[in-house]
């Protein structure tokens, strides 16, 4: 179930953000990932393992026309 995560990926988290949106965009890759909430643009830093643990699925990439 673990997909390789790339910049611009849209991922769906198991628990929605405080604003009610559960989709986040990956805006920075590194030891920690920076995720931006699609709903309110709030940015959060999260450990890579934690992201894998908390994400439900990858919805696609905003730089691609079709989700994969
Ligand atoms: Zn939000």
Q: Any overview of this molecule?
A:
This protein is 10% helix and 43% strand. The chain is mostly beta strands and 68 residues long. The protein starts with 8 loop residues before the first strand and ends in a 7-residue tail after the last strand. It has a 5-stranded antiparallel beta sheet with strand order 4-3-2-1-5, covered by helices on one side. Zinc ion binds next to loops.
Give a quick rundown of the structure.
The chain is mostly beta strands. Helices cover 10% and strands 43% of the residues. Strands 4-3-2-1-5 form a five-stranded antiparallel sheet, covered by helices on one side.
Low-confidence stretches at least 5 residues in length (pLDDT < 50)?
none
Quick one: biggest sheet? 5 strands, antiparallel
**Gyration radius, in Å:** 11 Å
Number of helices: 1
Quick one: overall form?
A: globular
Strand percent estimate: 35-45%
The total strand number stands at: 5
Helix/strand layout:
Blueprint: E1 9-13, E2 23-28, E3 32-37, E4 43-47, H1 48-54, E5 55-61
Antiparallel strand pairs: 1-2, 1-5, 2-3, 3-4
Zinc ion is lined by residues 17, 19, 21, 37, 39-40, 42.
Salient structural properties:
5 strands, 5-stranded antiparallel sheet, 68 residues, globular, binds zinc ion, mainly beta, 1 helix
């Amino acid at each position: 179930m673990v997909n390789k995560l790339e910049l611009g990926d849209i991922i769906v988290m198991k628990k929605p953000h405080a604003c009610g949106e559960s989709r986040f965009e990956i805006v920075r890759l590194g030891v920690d990932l920076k995720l931006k909430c699609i709903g309110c643009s709030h940015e959060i830093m999260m450990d890579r393992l934690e992201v894998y643990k908390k994400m439900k699925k990858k919805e696609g990439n905003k730089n691609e026309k079709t989700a994969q």
